[in-house]
Amino acid sequence: MSGETPLRVAFIGCGNIATRQHGPAFQTIPGVTIVAGCDLLPERAQAFTARFGGRPYTDLTTMLAAEQPDIVVVCTREDQHVEPTLAALEAGAHVLCEKIMAHTLAGGQAMLMAARRTSRLLGINYNYRFFPPLVTLKRLLTEGALGEIAFLSVTAHAFCFHHALDLLRWLGGEVVALTGQVSVAADPQVHYPVRCPDFVYVPSRAASVVVRFASGALGTLTATRYEHLTTRLLRLEVAGARGRLVVDGLTLDDIVGRLTRWPEGQEIPTGAGPERGFALSFQQADRAFVARVRGAETPAATGEDGYAVLLLERALVLAQTTGRTIALPSLTPVAEVGR
Length: 339
Known about the structure:
It is a single chain. The strands form 2 sheets. This protein has a 9-stranded mixed beta sheet with strand order 14-13-12-11-7-10-9-8-15, with helices on one face. Strands 3-2-1-4-5-6 form a 6-stranded parallel beta sheet, with helices on both faces. By secondary structure, the protein is an alpha/beta fold. Helices cover 33% and strands 25% of the residues. Helix 1 (16-27) packs across helix 8 and helix 7 crosses helix 9 (303-322). It folds into 2 domains: 7-127 and 283-301, Rossmann fold; 129-277, Dihydrodipicolinate Reductase, domain 2 (2-Layer Sandwich).
């Protein structure tokens, strides 16, 4: 019998990401019971609850009233995150929302304001924070292993671009300025099907970003749809006064890859077990969110983190259209939302 606080969990959106990743992950967390799956397509809700437990629903309001969940996991399309998140927060639930937090800056602000007003925890699923080499890299940087940091550099598949923006903030600290450019592919077949009017989100041909951190360090991020997820999700390098740390070898099938310290060429152990697949990051991210709900401090990304990444996304669009470097304080910063 688990000594953990019992928690009732409901899902909104019972498609691929719920069925393949979050559902199996939440099933393994002690003290957690999946009580409902809600989807506009009844067959999806029924299939989800037949596999993971709970009752199927097609109406969000009915589900929230009947089940009164402690946690709601929002797995709808990127342009359908705002309304279910607001409804769940107002119903008294903590919310874990898939990334991107919202498809507009105003939507992200509304979500953050609702979480603050209801005193509920809002989390955004930046599961790359839980890749074993990135967990170890974060610890080494916190310990000062490289001394003064000069730059962080990331190259990524376009599908990882938004995650990579979060990693820049998480590893490098607050961003004070950003500039960059975006190039659009001629072939509409490689354009991402979900539109986020205020943001780039998934660059088709390429996106390149340069940021300045509050520490004075610089960061770069380049992403393209022309990468291959089977050979590279992303590669990350941090250079400092005492050397470099490089994370590479990350793919959909292997999120352990390698963490190497240079100039020594020393591979750093990450403590990873035999499991190396992408699902491992969801297991760790979902456990970390539940631990936060229960009062622990974990690396799980908050609504404030999610909104801060939206600001970076918005700054890139403004940099592209104006040809200028955008000072992040010129946008509505996290601390000022709702004030």
